């Protein structure tokens, strides 16, 4: 009891420290780390509090006299070690892997996996952004989500380990600083324990921030559990064994150890440690029947009969103990063992739980040629920027296109790819909310129509809130004028267009984002989770410029298509670049390679068949 | 190519069905509850629903469960031929969208064609040789 209280106090101190750090730090990375600590500390505190609550309740319950106490009352199944390793497929990165080293739990445990992310919304200067975004998101996701898992799993030996949402305690949250938002969650329990990887559905939180991060809606995990009855020796002692059907007088003295699914009988006690093969192994599993018989006239103690069915045959072993007490102890042990079989499938075979090695790289997958693979792999050392990667990529692909092979990563976006079926892509909701009051352009905020949609197959479709007054408002809303890609001349629609056909005002992902940020947070310097940008914009920097003249009024109102955010910048700045450098926030740094990068990104946009919601 | 420069559409014969959808008001918007893809300015090869991969028509790509379109029995894969009398076979993507989202209209009457319709008709023709 006091143990938990100490833990709570410790976490509270940690949390205060994190708050102070958050208020004081100026570096982005520091802030992110501090926010993470804050989140995890808070969660731990909540969990400990609810744990404490439960214990108090249990105490109260115990004091209440119970009328009919059965033989099993008060008996608890053994605890076990539960560990999870999971991977979450992400849109820009193949997967993110997490591993947890294992926590104590009882069979009724509930493991709540929550995925948090924090948007780092500044640093959107062209060129450097995607690298930073990718690495920040991936690392913050990796570390924070990893830690979140640990935090969620840590509290004590008792289940459930859910986020103590029931705790009435309200912890003050600092108003500044990066905030982590719950994107998705799922709850796992004993029935999900399996020795292999399984796919589970994520419940997407459906808040604004979920749209920002394109999750496929599922995660793969291996939830392993090692109940103690499988790993520890539950009972040991000297017994005499005879086999039924044989000479009633032939007893063999053995040192028996009850562990996992068997009673191992050794000739000598030393053999147990010496890893010598047991002389006899009697299966003890859920099919086994054990009963104590009447006192054997030929021996001192009582007999215990263990019956198993092997195939069609029933085999019975009879044990004899030295004394009554021994018999009792053994029977107790067997009863407990059966009770422990509440761990069900975990008692069939021992599941391995590896201790995660300190800095284990993600499992090596065969090089799929995924652009995003490459992005992440390169971002490990943070030396090359995405623009470099993309440039290299373009060259490779152009070479290959001449040879007639199709880039493999395009298949992710093809509708017939078997990989994409079965994945439920969570479409993003794009909207603009909040705008700088001195913006000359009309900016009504519209709420998304419905955040929960499942598009067909693997097509990327965006849910955009549509204004049906596009006709009345503006002569041409910008997205009307945005056309899809120039028609492909070959099989590679992304690559075939020559640069001359690209519009001059092709704006890139980061430009959109920074514009949005700039508009949304004219003040700059404050960290707020920006929920505006659709996750589509992460992937689809469509060329924004239009051929026809745009009315000055028509700008950010209609976001009818994917990456519609591109429209506002282009329409605002007819002749000039969008103000991404000026409004990017305190950490933005303009990059010299902006234009070529934009072109590259525009050409690499895999989404070139528009869909509109009506 | 802009609409005026597009080559003329090929004459089309199709089995069509009328579908009338009452728009649903959601806040400021009137919605139909489906998504469209296609258009003469779009790459028809990307259309997963069309049989003819040079078909630049407007197709229904998604239906909101429980939405007005679903209620009216519009289906994914339907090709929209007309909206309230306006042709949809030779329009840009955005022109199509606009025809469907006129604020003053609360009902859209679509003429759609779908493969299963053609199949059904063909089948029924086959069963009744005397046509």
TrEMBL record, chain A:
Coiled coil among keywords: yes
Highest taxon listed in the record's lineage: Eukaryota
UniProtKB keywords: Coiled coil
Annotated region described as Disordered, given as residue ranges: 431-455, 540-614
Domain PH: 232-339
Gene3D superfamilies assigned to the protein according to its UniProt record, in alphabetical order: Pleckstrin-homology domain (PH domain)/Phosphotyrosine-binding domain (PTB)
Keyword Secreted among UniProt keywords: no
Coiled-coil portions: none
Sequence ranges of Low complexity compositional bias: 540-594
Protein name in UniProt: Rhotekin a
Organism: Fundulus heteroclitus (Killifish)
From TrEMBL, chain B:
Database matches in Gene3D superfamilies: 2.30.42.10
Domain PDZ, first and last residues per copy: 18-115
Gene Ontology biological-process entries: cell-cell adhesion; convergent extension involved in axis elongation; establishment or maintenance of epithelial cell apical/basal polarity; receptor clustering; receptor localization to synapse; regulation of signal transduction; Wnt signaling pathway
GO cellular component: basolateral plasma membrane; cell junction; cytoplasm; nucleus
A Pfam family this chain is assigned to: PDZ
GO molecular function: protein kinase binding
CDD domains registered for this protein in UniProt: PDZ_TAX1BP3-like
InterPro entries (UniProt xref): PDZ, PDZ_sf, Synaptic_Scaffolding_LAP-MAGUK
Record keywords, A-Z: Acetylation, Cell membrane, Cytoplasm, Membrane, Nucleus, Phosphoprotein, Wnt signaling pathway
SUPFAM superfamilies per UniProt: PDZ domain-like (SSF50156)
Subcellular location: Cell membrane; Cytoplasm; Nucleus
Membrane topology summary: Peripheral membrane protein
Residue ranges, annotated region (Disordered): 41-61
Record-linked PANTHER family: DISCS LARGE, DISKS LARGE 1 TUMOR SUPPRESSOR PROTEIN
Protein name: Tax1-binding protein 3
Originating species: Fundulus heteroclitus (Killifish)
């Amino acid at each position: 009891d006091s143990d938990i209280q100490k833990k709570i106090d410790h976490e509270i101190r940690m949390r205060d420290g994190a708050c102070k750090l958050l208020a004081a730090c100026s570096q982005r990375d520091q802030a992110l780390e501090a926010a993470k600590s804050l989140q995890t500390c808070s969660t731990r505190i909540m969990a400990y509090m609810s744990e404490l609550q439960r214990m108090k309740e249990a105490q109260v319950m115990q004091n209440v006299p119970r009328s009919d106490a059965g033989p099993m009352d008060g008996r608890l199944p053994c605890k076990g070690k539960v560990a999870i390793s999971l991977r979450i497929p992400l849109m820009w990165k193949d997967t993110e892997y997490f591993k947890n080293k294992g926590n104590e739990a009882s069979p009724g445990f509930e493991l709540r996996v929550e995925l948090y992310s924090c948007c780092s919304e500044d640093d959107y200067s062209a060129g450097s952004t995607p690298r930073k975004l990718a690495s920040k998101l991936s690392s913050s996701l990796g570390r924070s989500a990893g830690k979140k898992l640990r935090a969620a799993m840590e509290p004590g030996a008792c289940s459930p380990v859910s986020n103590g949402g029931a705790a009435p305690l309200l912890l003050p949250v600092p108003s500044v600083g990066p905030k982590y938002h719950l994107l998705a969650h799922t709850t796992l329990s004993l029935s999900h324990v399996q020795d292999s990887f399984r796919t589970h559905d994520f419940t997407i939180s459906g808040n604004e921030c979920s749209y920002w991060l394109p999750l496929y809606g599922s995660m793969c995990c291996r939830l392993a559990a090692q109940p103690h009855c499988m790993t520890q020796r539950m009972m040991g002692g000297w017994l005499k064994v005879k086999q039924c059907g044989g000479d009633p007088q032939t007893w063999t003295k053995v040192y028996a150890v009850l562990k996992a699914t068997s009673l191992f009988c050794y000739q000598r006690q030393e053999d147990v440690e010496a890893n010598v093969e047991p002389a006899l192994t009697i299966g003890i599993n859920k099919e086994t029947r054990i009963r104590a018989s009447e006192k054997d006239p030929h021996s001192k103690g009582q007999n215990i009969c263990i019956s198993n069915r092997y195939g069609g045959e029933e085999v019975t072993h009879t044990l004899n103990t030295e004394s009554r007490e021994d018999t009792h102890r053994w029977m107790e042990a067997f009863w407990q063992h059966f009770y422990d079989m509440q761990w069900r499938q975990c008692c069939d075979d021992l599941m391995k739980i590896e201790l995660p090695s300190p800095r284990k790289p993600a499992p090596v997958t065969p090089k799929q040629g995924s652009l995003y693979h490459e992005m992440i792999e390169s971002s490990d050392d943070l030396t090359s920027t995405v623009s470099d990667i993309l440039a290299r990529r373009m060259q490779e692909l152009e070479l290959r296109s001449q040879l007639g092979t199709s880039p493999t990563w395009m298949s992710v976006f093809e509708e017939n790819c078997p990989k994409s079926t079965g994945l439920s892509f969570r479409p993003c909701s794009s909207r603009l909310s909040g705008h700088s009051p001195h913006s000359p352009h009309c900016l009504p905020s519209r709420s998304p129509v419905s955040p929960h949609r499942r598009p067909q197959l693997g097509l990327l479709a965006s849910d955009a809130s549509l204004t049906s007054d596009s006709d009345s408002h503006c002569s041409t809303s910008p997205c009307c004028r945005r056309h899809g890609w120039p028609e492909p001349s070959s099989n590679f629609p992304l690559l075939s267009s020559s640069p001359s056909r690209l519009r001059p005002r092709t704006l890139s992902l980061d430009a959109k984002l920074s514009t949005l940020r700039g508009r949304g947070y004219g003040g700059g310097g404050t960290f707020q989770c920006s929920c505006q940008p659709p996750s589509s914009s992460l992937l689809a920097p469509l060329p924004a410029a239009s051929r026809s003249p745009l009315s000055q009024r028509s700008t950010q109102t209609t976001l009818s298509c994917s990456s519609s955010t591109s429209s506002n910048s282009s329409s605002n700045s007819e002749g000039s670049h969008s103000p991404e450098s000026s409004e990017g926030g305190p950490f933005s740094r303009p990059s010299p390679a902006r234009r070529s990068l934009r072109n590259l990104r525009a050409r690499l946009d895999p989404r070139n068949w528009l869909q509109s919601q009506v | 190519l802009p609409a005026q420069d597009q080559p003329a559409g090929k004459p089309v014969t199709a089995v069509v069905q009328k579908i009338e959808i009452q728009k649903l008001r959601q806040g400021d918007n009137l919605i139909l509850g489906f998504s469209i893809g296609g258009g003469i300015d779009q790459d028809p090869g990307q259309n997963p629903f069309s049989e003819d991969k040079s078909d630049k028509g407007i197709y229904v790509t998604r239906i909101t469960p429980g939405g007005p379109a679903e209620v009216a029995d519009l289906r994914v894969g339907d090709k929209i031929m007309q909206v309230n009398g306006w042709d949809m076979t030779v329009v840009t993507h955005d022109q199509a969208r606009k025809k469907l989202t006129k604020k003053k209209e609360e009902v859209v009457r679509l003429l759609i064609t779908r493969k299963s319709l053609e199949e059904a008709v063909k089948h029924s023709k086959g069963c009744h040789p005397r046509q």
